[in-house]
Design brief:
There is one protein chain. This protein is an alpha/beta fold and 473 residues long. It has a single domain, classed as Spore Coat Polysaccharide Biosynthesis Protein SpsA, Chain A (Alpha-Beta Complex). It has helices spanning 26-39, 51-70, 74-102, 134-142, 162-169, 190-198, 219-229, 250-273, 288-293, 304-314, 334-355, 367-399, 406-426, 433-440, 442-445, 448-462; strands spanning 121-127, 151-158, 178-182, 205-209, 214-215, 234-238, 241-243, 284-287, 318-321, 326-328. A seven-stranded mixed beta sheet has the order 3-2-1-4-8-6-9, with helices on both faces. Strands 5-10-7 form a three-stranded mixed beta sheet. α4 links the parallel β1 (121-127) and β2. The longest helix has 33 residues, at 367-399. It is globular and about 75 Å long. Residues 7-15 and 106-111 have low confidence and may be disordered.
Length: 473
């Protein structure tokens, strides 16, 4: 059963009650889809590029084309002037974040047990074609160590997904759980469903879980502890996501190692420095008032989590981190991995385009925050585009005596490999022979990002709001 992984946790007897099933509300669904776009169009990805961005891009391309015709060596000169400084900045910033993450500190997120009164906590779970994992989800929700009369659980299901609705009704849930059927409409995305649930939320705090998640039973209490100790400027807390491969394929292990680096090192370091955090898609804990003020989720962005984290920073809020984990099952098959990763990359590009709009269109980040996002989110987009061609060039230079990486190319290769190995070595997790093998084979994982990026670019142009569903069994 899905609760395995947290030692000593057993099924607890809980108060039960009837599953509440309010009637679908079309007006609420329309607001969930269009609220942010209507109130602050500059903050929404409904249009990938704003009119002003399209004008700037067109004029810049025209000028660059004319200058290249006049001076054919211009692209080479620009590459030499831009690429080395950008690469060095990305590597140095990654090493800086690793150094910050490596510093030991007391676990402020551990539940102290000193809270006299726990507030109502809303749990939002967006579901689509998830009938198979409903027993696991019910187990996870019933295992939360939190007063059941203060859990406001919303199960959000698309109107046409009758199998998941039936599977929900076959399980036992905490008293007061609501099955919210989201009326058919566009875009059919997770953030639209989350906004629909947020409109009925009663909690002081709101957390998002996915169907396959197994949050630590004390995670809600840990979040309340930190929210109580931090000021109101802390609008969100990210819990670490831990990949637990069911089969243990090489691809799933690499995905899990990637998660260990991101949520075990990079996110805590950014949070500690007060820099913007592109949130993960689950186990985000919010102050409901701040979440509503920020406009909720952008229904038109397929990485609504990353977008919301940066929007909170633009509005002056901070994102913190707790250490109480959530276990997840990584994709085991290449086709599932590629579909999920292409959606992430498409959403990253949507988020970056929204971020790059002028201050007259949307509030901007502070200079250090803006630079940090370029060296994290921007670097993730750039690296996905570059890894494939760069790997092919390295192989060609290795096989052909007539080709050479040159001094900078060789240095870049060494620094990339060393930084990747260092990141993976410092990441939380059990050390064994298999992990050593995974670290040594990291360079074979990176070029796969380019294959996903090709699909992401095509989708960004043709189906920008299409949500590639990750199946769970």
């Amino acid at each position: 059963m899905g609760g395995e992984g947290f030692n000593g946790e057993v099924w607890r007897a809980r108060l039960r009650g009837p599953l509440l099933c309010p009637q679908p509300d079309m007006a609420m669904a329309l607001e969930a889809a269009h609220g942010l776009d209507r109130q602050a169009p500059g903050l929404s990805a409904r249009q990938t590029l704003s009119l002003k961005q399209r004008q700037i891009a067109t004029r810049s391309l025209l000028v660059l084309t004319v200058l290249t015709l006049m001076m054919p060596e211009l692209p080479g000169i620009l590459t030499i002037l831009v690429v080395p400084p950008a690469f060095v900045a990305i590597i140095l910033f990654r090493l800086f974040l690793l150094a910050v993450a490596a510093r030991k500190r007391s676990d402020a997120s551990a539940h102290s047990g000193a809270i006299p009164l726990l507030p109502v906590y809303t749990i939002l779970v967006a579901l689509k074609d998830e009938a198979a994992v409903m027993p696991q989800l019910a187990w996870a929700m019933n295992s939360l160590d939190y007063p059941q009369d203060r859990i406001d659980l919303k199960l959000l299901v698309e109107e046409a997904d009758l199998r998941t609705q039936a599977a929900i009704k076959a399980q036992t849930w905490p008293a007061g759980t609501e099955l919210l059927v989201v009326p058919a409409g566009q875009p059919q995305t997770k953030p639209r469903a989350l906004n629909y649930g947020l409109a009925r939320a009663r909690g002081t705090y709101v957390v998002v879980y996915d169907a396959e998640d197994r949050p630590h039973p004390e995670q809600l209490k840990a979040a309340v502890d930190v929210f109580n100790s931090d000021g109101p400027e802390t609008a969100c807390l990210q819990a670490p996501l831990v990949g637990v491969p069911a089969v243990g394929s090489w691809l799933a292990r690499q995905w899990s190692l990637e998660y260990a680096i991101q949520f075990g090192l990079i996110v805590p370091a950014l949070a500690r420095l007060g820099l913007p955090v592109a949130l993960g898609g689950t186990s985000n804990h919010f102050r409901r008032t701040a979440l509503v003020r920020a406009g909720g989720w952008d229904a038109w962005n397929v990485t609504e989590d990353a977008d919301l984290g940066l929007r909170l920073a633009r509005l002056g809020y901070r994102v913190g981190a707790i250490q109480s984990p959530t276990l997840e099952a990584p994709p085991e098959e290449a086709r599932v991995w590629r579909g999920q990763r292409s959606r992430w990359l498409k959403g990253y590009m949507q988020t970056w385009c929204v971020l790059m709009r002028g201050r007259n269109e949307a509030p901007g980040l502070k200079p250090l925050g803006f630079l940090s996002v370029q060296l994290t989110l921007g670097a993730a987009i750039l690296s996905a585009m570059v890894h494939g061609p760069w790997s092919l060039w390295c192989v060609a230079c290795l096989l052909s005596p007539d080709l050479s990486l040159g001094p900078f190319g060789l240095l870049a290769l060494i620094l990339s490999l060393a930084t990747g190995a260092l990141s993976a070595s410092l990441a939380p997790g059990v050390w064994n022979r298999q992990r050593l093998t995974d670290i040594l084979t990291l360079p074979f994982y990176w070029p796969l990002q380019t294959l996903a990026m090709i699909r992401a670019l095509w989708s960004l142009v043709h189906t920008p709001h299409y949500w590639v569903k990750t199946p769970h069994v």
